[in-house]
Specification:
By secondary structure, the protein is mostly helical. The chain is built from four helices and no strands. The protein has helices spanning 9-29, 31-50, 54-84, 90-127. Helix 2 packs antiparallel against helix 3, helix 2 (31-50) runs parallel beside helix 4 (90-127) and helix 3 runs antiparallel to helix 4 (90-127). It is globular.
Length: 128
């Protein structure tokens, strides 16, 4: 006998609800997400100003999504570590540090992509 799928339309809708609830929590409670969002807004404004190509838009939006996603994962990891290790433990600290380092790596890589996209446009505009 085949088992009925637990992925009913209602459960799928609820999974989106939970995801948006987590997103709301991140934006309400994590200052770093707002820092990333301000940077993203500046990138978008410069993208329109310099009329960047579709490939450049794709690269920038992937970077924006990866950095904000990494920040949300970092927040989830921090909360989980706090739950399972409310008292200080060196390994708990390492887990948090490594999760934060992942955000840093994504952020540095994204900044490099931003420089690769915008520096040529900036010099093209200023040389004319």
């Amino acid at each position: 006998m085949m088992k009925k799928s637990s992925l009913t339309p209602k459960s799928r809708i609820n999974s989106f609800r939970y995801a948006f609830k987590g997103l709301r929590y991140g934006f309400k409670n994590q200052v770093n997400i707002w820092v990333h969002m301000i940077a993203a807004l500046l990138v978008i404004v410069f993208g329109f100003y310099f009329h960047i190509s579709i490939g450049e838009w794709i690269a920038l939006f992937l970077c924006i999504g990866l950095v904000i996603g990494a920040e949300l994962m970092n927040t989830a990891i921090e909360h989980l570590v706090d739950l399972v290790s409310p008292e200080y433990h060196p390994l708990a600290g390492k887990v948090k540090d490594i999760a934060a380092a992942a955000v840093l790596v994504f952020s540095i890589a994204s900044a490099a992509v931003g420089l690769l996209v915008f520096v040529p446009h900036f010099f093209q505009i200023t040389l004319i």
